[in-house]
Design a protein that fits this description.
This protein has a single domain (about 1-410), classed as Porin (Beta Barrel). About 5% of the residues lie in helices and about 50% in strands. The protein contains three helices and 22 strands. It is globular and about 65 Å long.
């Protein structure tokens, strides 16, 4: 499934329609997905206590794609959304229209023997995990994303924690560490970004095996743009999978590299640099489908090496997503996920079994295809942090998704 999805991102999406693929070796297309969403939640009150619990907004995904001959192609995924659109946007004070280049790269493909080999360069979603390629609302049976891809951890890349006691009073979404770096409080880092990173990537698909290796200018946990030259550190991400049988694939992935900024350099131990303290992640993903049922799941471990710690901050995250097709047009879906901190020990001998509450999220949803290109979804998410109670973090959402594929032409 994921292997086929990656091939689609490289091959099928090039041409957006079967007619263009069959009639021309070169061509241009631009599929569009337009989504209109609404949500009801008290999350808005975190940034504005007087805010209404209701909001309605929109999102456009544009996929301009150019193919030049049998080997060369260019692809982009451009997001335009009015905030707050996603469930996690409701925690943020940001409002207004925001545009993001999710992906934008050139590529070269070849077929040595039975293999398909693709080289890409530009801005790409991370090669870590299986979710980042499912950024289209028509591909996500629900409306939120798993916790590892959206949660702001109690760790920052521009500040240093003094030790375990410093970690214990930090919060998800707001961090103010006291042993060097930028001053003041602010959001923590997200374990894995869902947005593009400047990168070069090589990937191969051979029968039941697929693999990818990606070199990026920064960590998937702390992505940097093309402009921030002074904070770019070359590092790698890799992944691969094996299709055991049709509809059943198991994959692994990982990344390693610096995640801190040079602003913390004066407070690092003598002889060390930010490269001495990398972010390290390992992931396992499984995909299964048979008949009317399908499942996706991931289990991920993240470690953020830092001075002042013998056992540094670590996080374990995972989710399982189930989808059942009731009729050709109607489906139901559920995703159960968690994110928890693991044990930590600082250089002063102070330890803790965990340093932040475990988060749990359960999302239930129903989808109905009004038309082959029109999808209506409704979902409700229960969000729970260990030691707390109440429903203020829960969300009721509705979404209408429309896909357009008409803009395309080809030439010899």
């Amino acid at each position: 499934m994921l292997r086929r999805a990656r091939k689609a991102a490289v091959v099928a999406v090039w041409l957006a329609g079967a007619g263009l693929a069959q009639q021309a070796e070169s061509g241009f297309s631009m599929p569009v997905t337009a989504s209109f969403g609404a949500m009801d939640t008290h999350r808005f009150e975190y940034s504005n206590p007087s805010a209404s619990p209701f909001a309605a907004n929109f999102r456009l995904m544009l996929y301009p794609t150019l193919r030049l001959g049998k080997h060369w192609f260019a692809y982009a995924a451009i997001q335009v959304r009015r905030m707050p659109y996603f469930y996690y946007d409701a925690y943020l004070p940001d409002r207004g229209v925001e545009t993001n280049l999710v992906q934008g790269y050139v590529g070269y493909t070849m077929h040595p023997g039975a293999a398909t080999v693709v080289f890409k360069a530009g801005q790409m979603v991370t090669a870590f995990g299986s979710l980042p390629l499912r950024y289209d609302d028509a591909e996500n049976p629900l409306m939120d994303q798993p916790l590892a891809y959206i949660t702001e951890l109690p760790v920052r890349g521009d500040q240093l924690s003094c030790g375990t006691n410093d970690l214990l009073w930090q919060h998800y979404g707001y961090v103010q560490a006291g042993c060097g770096g930028e001053t003041g409080g602010g959001p923590g880092i997200t374990p894995v970004t869902l947005y593009g990173i400047p990168a070069a990537q090589a990937e191969i698909s051979l029968r039941r095996f697929d693999a990818r290796v990606q070199m990026t200018n920064s960590s998937p946990a702390y992505p940097e743009s093309w402009e921030t030259v002074s904070r770019q550190y070359l590092q790698w991400t890799a992944g691969g999978g094996f299709t055991i049988q049709q509809g059943f694939r198991v994959g692994v992935s990982g990344f390693r590299g610096p995640y801190m900024e040079n602003t913390v350099a004066p407070w690092l131990p003598a002889g060390s640099t930010v490269r001495s303290f990398p972010a390290i992640a390992r992931g396992l993903d499984v995909e299964w489908a048979r008949g009317r049922l399908s499942a996706n799941g991931e289990l991920q471990d993240f470690r953020f090496d830092a001075p002042n710690f013998v056992v540094p901050p670590r996080f374990l995250a995972g989710y399982i997503e189930l989808k059942g097709r009731i009729t050709p047009r109607i489906f139901t879906a559920v995703r159960e996920g968690f994110l928890k901190t693991e044990s930590v020990l600082d250089t002063q001998g102070v330890s803790a079994a965990e340093f932040s509450p475990t988060l749990q999220a359960t999302e239930l949803g129903v989808g109905y295809w009004l038309h082959p290109r029109v999808l209506a979804k409704v979902s409700y998410e229960f969000m729970h942090a260990a030691g707390s109670s109440g429903s203020d973090n829960n969300v009721l959402g509705m979404q209408l998704v429309v896909r357009f594929n008409q803009l395309q032409w080809g030439w010899k």
